[in-house]
Structures are given as C-alpha cells and as structure tokens.
C-alpha cells in the first residue's frame, strides 16, 4: 500500500505572504490534495527578534484568501525547541556529534591562516576527535560529524540528481553555546516528526538539503522526496523584488484579482500541463505533478495574470462572484454594499463579467445599478446631454411606458424612434448611457434597462430630460 502523501508549507513570520511563498504553498497544497494526502502548516518562528504575531496573521489571511486550507493544528517551530535539542544530544550520545570549544577568535584565526596559505577556509575543529577528559570547563557548541569522504547525492524531482563532494561540507553546528538549536536542525526534526514525505520548496534551499541529509542519515530517518522549485523573476529576468511591484499575496486581493484566477496563474508559474493556460481548481488538482515543474525561473507577468483572471471572472457563477466582490471591498477598506446594491449587482453580473479583468473593473461597470437617483453624470457623460438629446429622451419616455419589458421589444421601440427622427440608434445611445448610468462607457443600454426595470429606467430618463 502506498504511504500517505504529507506536504508542508513553512513560512517565517517576518512579513506578509510573499507571492513566491504563496506559489510554494499552492504547489504543496495541490500535490497533497490531489492525492488525498495532508497539507500541513508550520510557522518557522525561531528568529524571535524578527517574528511577529502580525506577520503570522498576514500569512494566514493570505492563505485563507487563496483558499489554501491546511490539516491539523499549526506547528510553531519555536515551541519545539526542546525536541530539537533532544535530537542533538542524542547524536552526541551516539558519537555522531561532538562538543566544540573553539571560540569565534579561534575560528577566525584558523580561516585567516588557511586563506593566507591558499587553502580551503572550511573549518575543521580540533575537538572532533578529542577525548571527553580533555574537555575544558568552558562554553561549547554541538557540531555534527560530517562525512569527510565520498559524495552526498540529492535525488531531486525537479533538479535531477545533484551531487555534493563531502569534503566541502563542514561539521555543522546543531546547538549554539546557549543550548538553542539552529534552524537547519529544527527543520529536519520538525519535518520528520510531522511525517512529511515530500519537501517542495524554493531552489534557494537546495544547498541546505545536503547539510540536512547529514542529520537524516545520522538519525537513521527516512529521507523525504525533495523537489526544489525555481524562483520567480520579474519581467527583467531578475529575482522578484519590490521594484517589480506588489509582492504580497494580499496586495493582489486589495488590487481586486479573484482568488481562483490567482491560483490558476501561480500554478502556471514554473509548472505546465501541455499548453493549458486557463484551468479550474478541479483540473489543477487532477493534473498537478512534480514532473511538470521546470528547472528555469518563472517570470511574473501582470498582463498574463489579468488575462487569466478575466477568464475566471467570466466563468464564475453570479452568486460566488457577488461574494468575492463583497470580500474585495472589505479587504480594500471600501464601503460595503447595501443589501439592495448587492442584490442589484448579482442581477447585473450576467452583462458585466465578460470583459472585466479585476473586481474593481467589474464594480465600475456595475455603477449603473449601484448608484441611486438622481444620477449625476460624470464629465464625459454630461457632454451627451445637450438640449437636443434631452428633448429626444423626453419624447422617448412615453413610448416606453407601455412597451413589453424584454430586449426584443425594447430594441423595436428604440430603433423605430431613431428611424422616425431620421437618425441611428447610436445617436441615442450616448444620452441613454448618461441618463441611466451617468457614464459614457457602460454595459449595453438594453441590459441596463432590463436590470433596472421599467419604473427605475423611466424615472432616470425623466430626470435626465429635465
């Protein structure tokens, strides 16, 4: 029987959920969920000076927006420090680690001398093979005994086999002189204790894997499947940074990108399934596999993000899209919709969602149903309401009074009225948009009339006609 897949996302709570971290979380979530496995969350909060509760909250909110739910309780790495130390002391007892009494001055002097002689500055502690009875009564660190010959091979699902010469690996510190465990030890112990089977993370951790393997091997633990994914670059080919624009997942929520579109786009950053660009969550869960991840860095492209998000908005159900618009307004600290506005928005979505790439664009298109009388035309719309136009609206209103309120009948009335005036409907459209929406660019006039209904439409036309 195949063992259950267990993945994890392990962010440091020193800031927001970075877009690269969001993609790492997504890849882990897709891999586990697509195989009926577990997706765990660990907060790597051992850096007490930089870790903050606010950052943890921001990370959790970013994950919640993206719909990346985790299994079980959140693990705090800091809380597990006694367990990490226990493993280091176990290795010490087994003779696989040792007490090193070298001071920082000793280490610096060693490296300066090696550098002067043109030798490797990799530190070789004289305490590695010292007898216990020669130990001074002084502070010490606990170091693991690194293999000194041969190679360490990381069998990586993305990078392939990556070989490290063991003579380039130092006797890594496990416990500092104050007894606190180092990050490299904590990661391995936590992953082992959490039952993590697949470590999917950025390829900036690839070198760490060789050092972490020493702990797995020394403890006789199963080594997880490694998958080191390439970083995300900006459009200039350089590592994604603030100069490329927004970096936090929640910033994209506040900018009004829909979560499903963001998931789709992030999944395509460095992973592919044939030529498929647009896909649903169900398809992503079915298709996602480690062999689809490319070795080369992915490039973040706002235009592509907008295109994919536009397709997700267009294909969303109206009720779900209404909820997402309301969540966007809350996240962006914008005024909430009234129940009446929210109902109107949902009724109008069928004629709004085809061309919007973000939720703010969608809400702007819905202005006609979100505003109330008297409708105030903006600067461009007011130009369409001259005396001639107002006169036409005044004549048109009675003809609509008793018309059947369906698109076909409304088109007949409008086109008939335009023909009687020896003009085209296009000449009527501008004043109608200004009267109904107060905007020069709107959804179809007929769609607005149908959404607003007879009474509201006629009232707005009367207002505009003056």
Automatic annotation (TrEMBL):
Keywords: Aminoacyl-tRNA synthetase, ATP-binding, Cytoplasm, Ligase, Nucleotide-binding, Protein biosynthesis. It catalyses: tRNA(Glu) + L-glutamate + ATP = L-glutamyl-tRNA(Glu) + AMP + diphosphate. It is found in: Cytoplasm. The keyword Kinase does not apply. ATP binds at residue 242. Pfam families: Anticodon_2, tRNA-synt_1c. It is an enzyme of class 6 (ligase). A motif ('KMSKS' region) lies at residues 239-243. Residues 335-464 form the Aminoacyl-tRNA synthetase class I anticodon-binding domain. A motif ('HIGH' region) lies at residues 11-21. One of its GO terms (molecular function) is ligase activity. Its EC number is 6.1.1.17. It comes from the Bacteria. The keyword Magnesium does not apply. Residues 4-305 form the Glutamyl/glutaminyl-tRNA synthetase class Ib catalytic domain. PANTHER family: GLUTAMATE--TRNA LIGASE, GLUTAMATE--TRNA LIGASE, MITOCHONDRIAL-RELATED. Catalyzes the attachment of glutamate to tRNA(Glu) in a two-step reaction: glutamate is first activated by ATP to form Glu-AMP and then transferred to the acceptor end of tRNA(Glu). Monomer. Belongs to the class-I aminoacyl-tRNA synthetase family. Glutamate--tRNA ligase type 1 subfamily. This is Glutamate--tRNA ligase.
């Amino acid at each position: 029987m195949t063992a259950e897949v267990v993945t994890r996302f392990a962010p440091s709570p020193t800031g927001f959920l970075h877009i690269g971290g969001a993609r790492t979380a997504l890849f882990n979530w897709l891999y586990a969920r697509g195989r009926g496995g577990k997706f765990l969350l660990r907060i790597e909060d051992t850096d007490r000076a930089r870790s903050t509760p606010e950052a943890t909250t921001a990370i959790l909110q970013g994950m919640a927006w993206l719909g990346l739910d985790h299994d079980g309780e959140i693990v705090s790495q800091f809380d597990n420090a006694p367990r990490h130390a226990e493993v280091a002391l176990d290795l010490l007892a087994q003779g696989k680690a040792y007490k090193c009494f070298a001071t920082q001055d000793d280490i610096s002097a060693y490296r300066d001398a090696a550098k002067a002689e043109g030798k490797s500055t990799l530190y070789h502690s004289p305490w590695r093979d010292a007898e216990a009875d020669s130990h001074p009564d002084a502070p010490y660190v606990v170091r693991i005994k690194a293999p000194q010959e041969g190679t360490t091979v990381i069998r990586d699902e993305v990078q392939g086999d990556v070989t490290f010469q063991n003579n380039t690996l130092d006797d890594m510190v496990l416990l500092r002189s104050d007894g606190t465990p180092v990050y490299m030890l904590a990661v391995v112990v936590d992953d082992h204790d959490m039952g993590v089977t697949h470590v999917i993370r950025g390829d900036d951790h690839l070198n760490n894997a060789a050092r972490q393997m020493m702990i797995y091997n020394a403890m006789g633990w199963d080594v997880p499947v490694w998958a080191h994914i390439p970083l995300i670059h900006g459009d200039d080919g350089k590592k994604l940074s603030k100069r490329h624009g927004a970096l936090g997942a929640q910033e994209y929520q506040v900018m009004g990108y829909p979560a499903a579109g963001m998931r789709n786009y992030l999944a395509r950053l460095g992973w592919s399934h044939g030529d498929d660009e647009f896909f649903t969550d169900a398809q992503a869960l079915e298709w996602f596999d480690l062999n689809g991840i490319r070795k080369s860095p992915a490039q973040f492209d706002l235009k592509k993000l907008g295109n994919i998000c536009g397709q997700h908005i267009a294909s969303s159900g109206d009720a779900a899209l209404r909820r997402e618009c309301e969540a966007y307004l809350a996240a962006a600290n914008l005024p909430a919709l009234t129940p009446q506005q929210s109902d109107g928005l949902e009724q109008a979505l069928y004629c709004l969602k085809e061309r919007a790439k973000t939720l703010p664009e969608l809400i702007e298109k819905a202005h006609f149903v979100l505003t109330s009388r008297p409708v105030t035309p903006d600067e461009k719309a007011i130009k369409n309401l001259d005396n001639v136009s107002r006169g036409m609206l005044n004549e048109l209103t009675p003809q609509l009074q008793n018309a059947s309120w369906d698109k076909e009948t409304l088109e007949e009335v409008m086109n008939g009225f335009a023909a009687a005036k020896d003009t085209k409907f296009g000449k009527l459209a501008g004043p109608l948009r200004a009267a109904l929406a107060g905007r020069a660019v709107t959804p179809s006039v007929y769609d607005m009339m149908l959404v607003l209904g007879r009474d509201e439409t006629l009232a707005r036309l009367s207002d505009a006609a003056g």
